[in-house]
């Protein structure tokens, strides 16, 4: 779900919010019509955020999903788990190191909570990143602090380094709020914006499986900031984010669709004042969007769907929930938030809430019959930074 994809998810700069109460007290639903009843589309392939047909979520007697394992590990220096990617029956977490120890850390968890491997790798200084699943491993995509280019690191399924390189951008373009997704057939797709003082252009770039640039497109978007990218089922891509963050009237969430070579097909602005779109799950009939309203002290998560032309289908809002990530659980969706997990049915109607011993849930992904979540511990860790934590939540099989 992730995180500025999301930029705020990457940096972990969001403060925690108050614990969430009952579903009845929190859920405020808005529907756009009778099309709700016909919306039962299956999930897509989105690096562990689309879950496939697995049946229903395993729940406790109280209705919330059952936590199978939970553990703390390692330390950071006020930097959270940055990204997660599912591969096979496990997940890999991309973790930013302590300020004095540049590089990156990758940890792979198996369904029972055991760690298959734990790698610390050299990398340029960075402050936001994504982890994209490849056919035989992963590609870490980070925004380097000292370079105006994204940096890619290819890893095998065992977490071993294969290659790394910077991706060249054209003059005046910057890796501002860079988001990344998987390209069908190999490679990655990157989306971002120009520097705030350079203009109002959004860009999208596709690489081959070796990380070399194949194409680059720019769009005059009047300040759209990209927060997530997903591959469409027809071979194109969806870019989501927020409109001009400096606009007096406040930001609006946007969706921009391209073909397989990054050529724009359509764009839409959605939602209302002080709202942004931070996550997207592509589906054959459109997309599921995760949004956030951040008007002063007001916090709301917004779950909505659009059709294959970007027009709204249904929309639900959850007051008091500060969202971070979105996953497809097969029979519904789960929103990872600062306050825990919040589950819905296929129409976005609230079904259950699951809190954890530790707050600041940052990322989530589905692999096999497990929903994995991870974040930071609030207390001080062993080496002077807050410990990280991860947990596995059970999913039943069909």
From TrEMBL:
Residues 26-67 are annotated as: Disordered. InterPro entries: Quinoprotein_ADH-like_sf (IPR011047), TAT_signal (IPR006311). This is PQQ-binding-like beta-propeller repeat protein.
């Amino acid at each position: 779900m992730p995180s500025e994809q999301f930029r705020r998810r990457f940096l972990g700069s969001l403060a925690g919010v108050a614990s969430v109460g009952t579903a009845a007290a929190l859920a405020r639903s808005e529907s756009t019509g009778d099309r709700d009843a016909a919306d039962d589309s299956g999930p897509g392939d989105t690096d562990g955020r689309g879950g496939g047909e697995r049946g229903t979520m395993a729940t406790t007697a109280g209705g919330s999903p059952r936590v199978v394992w939970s553990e703390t590990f390692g330390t950071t220096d006020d930097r959270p788990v940055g990204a997660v990617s599912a591969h096979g029956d496990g997940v890999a977490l991309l973790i930013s190191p302590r300020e004095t120890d540049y590089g990156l850390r990758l940890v792979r968890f198996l369904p029972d909570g055991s760690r298959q491997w734990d790698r610390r790798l050299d990398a340029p200084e960075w402050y936001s990143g994504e982890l994209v699943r490849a056919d035989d491993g992963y590609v870490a995509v980070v925004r380097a602090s000292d370079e105006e280019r994204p940096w890619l690191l290819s890893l095998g399924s065992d977490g071993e380094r294969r290659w790394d390189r910077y991706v060249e951008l054209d003059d005046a373009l910057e890796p501002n709020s860079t988001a990344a997704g998987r390209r069908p057939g190999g490679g990655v797709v990157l989306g971002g914006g120009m520097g705030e003082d350079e203009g109002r252009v959004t860009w999208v770039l596709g690489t081959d499986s070796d990380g070399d640039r194949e194409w680059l497109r720019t769009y005059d978007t009047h300040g759209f900031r990209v927060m997530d990218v997903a591959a469409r089922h027809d071979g194109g891509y969806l870019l989501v984010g927020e409109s001009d963050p400096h606009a007096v009237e406040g930001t609006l969430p946007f969706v921009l669709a391209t073909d397989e070579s990054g050529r724009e097909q359509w764009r839409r602005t959605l939602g209302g004042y002080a709202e942004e779109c931070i996550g997207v799950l592509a589906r054959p009939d459109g997309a599921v969007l995760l949004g956030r309203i951040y008007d002063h002290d007001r916090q709301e998560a917004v779950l909505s769907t659009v059709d294959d032309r970007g027009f709204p289908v249904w929309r639900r809002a959850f007051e008091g929930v500060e969202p971070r990530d979105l996953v497809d659980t097969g029979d519904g969706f789960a929103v990872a938030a600062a306050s825990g997990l919040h589950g819905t049915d296929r129409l976005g109607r609230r079904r259950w809430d699951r809190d954890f011993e530790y707050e600041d849930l940052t990322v989530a992904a589905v692999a096999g019959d497990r929903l994995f979540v991870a974040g930071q511990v609030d207390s001080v860790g062993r080496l002077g930074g807050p410990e990280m934590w991860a947990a596995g939540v059970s999913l039943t099989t069909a």
